[in-house]
C-alpha cells in the first residue's frame, strides 16, 4: 500500500542546471518539474537524478488492495511514486517530471522522440548523475530499446516498471523504483547502455523482453542473460561495463517530435496466411514491414510473392523476424537468386520494428539496413 510520509516536501526547483532536460512534453504535461528533497533541504553532497514518469502499472490505481487486474494505469503522479519511497531521498536529490500519464500501449513514436531528446539534454548536464524512466511494462522493452539506440551517454539511464498497481498488496513498484534510483546513482551503472530494472534484476534494453503477461518475474533475456542483480537494494554486475555488439546509434536530436517515425507495421505469420495483408499494410502507409515468421522467419509462398511485389513496386523495406521467443534470423528468403528483405538477427519483431523505423528515418538504403540487422 502507498504511504505519504509527511517529512517529504515538494519544492519547484529553482536551479536551472538541475532542470536541464526536465521539461515535460507539451501535449501531456500534468505538472511542472519538481525537485524532491528531504525536509525541503537540498543536499549538495548527494547525486542528482531526474525521474521521467510516463504512467503505466507502476502508477496504477485500483478500487481495492487485492485488485491486480482492471485497474487504471497511469492514475498516480510522479509525486505519489516518489513520496511512497522516502528512502530514495537518502541517496539522491530527485528532479521529478510528469512526462505523461498513460498506459504504455498508448506510447507512440512522437512521444519517444521527445522523451529521448529530454533525456539526452538531462544527461548532458554536468549536474545530473543519471536518469530513471517509469513506464508501463506492456511496451517497456520497445521504449527502452528506442532510448538505447538514440541516447549517447556514459551515465546510467534506467527504465523501470511494475506488474502490480501501486495500490495492490505487495506492490512491486516501490522496490523496483528504489533499486532503479540506486542503480542510476551508482558508478557501477556507467557505460552499460540503457538498462531495465524489475524483480531485483538488471537487464540490457537491447535484449530484455517481457515473457509473461502476469508474473512478476516476466522480463528476461534467455540467451544473453541478465547484466546483474540487487542485494539489499545495491546493484552488482556479472560483467564489466560494455554495450551489445553491433549496437547502432541514431541521432534524433534534430527530429521534430510531432512528426514521429516512419510508419512500420508488424505482420504475424501463420498457416494459411492471408497474403492480402501485405499490400493492405503498404496501401495504408507502411514504409516498412516486419514479418514475424514461424521458426527462423519462415513465410508462406504466397506471402513471399506479395513481399516481392511490395519491394519491387513500392520499395518497401522488409525485415524477416520470428514468432519463437528467442533465436536468430540470418536472412530473408531467396527468390530468383535475390534475398527478399533482410534477416532480423537476434531482434524480436517489436524491436526489429523500432530499429527499422530509425533506419528509415535516417534515410538508410537496403544495404545499410542489412548491415545493422544481419
Automatic annotation (TrEMBL):
User: For this UniProt entry, which residues form the secretion signal?
Assistant: 1-22
Any one Gene Ontology molecular-function term assigned to this protein's record:
asparaginase activity
In which residues is substrate bound? 104, 137-138
Q: Which reaction does it catalyse?
A: L-asparagine + H2O = L-aspartate + NH4(+)
Q: Which GO terms describe its biological process?
A: L-asparagine catabolic process
Q: Which CDD domains match?
A: L-asparaginase_II
Which family does the similarity line name?
A: Belongs to the asparaginase 1 family.
PANTHER family named in the record: 60 KDA LYSOPHOSPHOLIPASE, L-ASPARAGINASE
Protein name (Swiss-Prot/TrEMBL): asparaginase
Question: What organism is the protein native to?
Answer: Dactylonectria macrodidyma
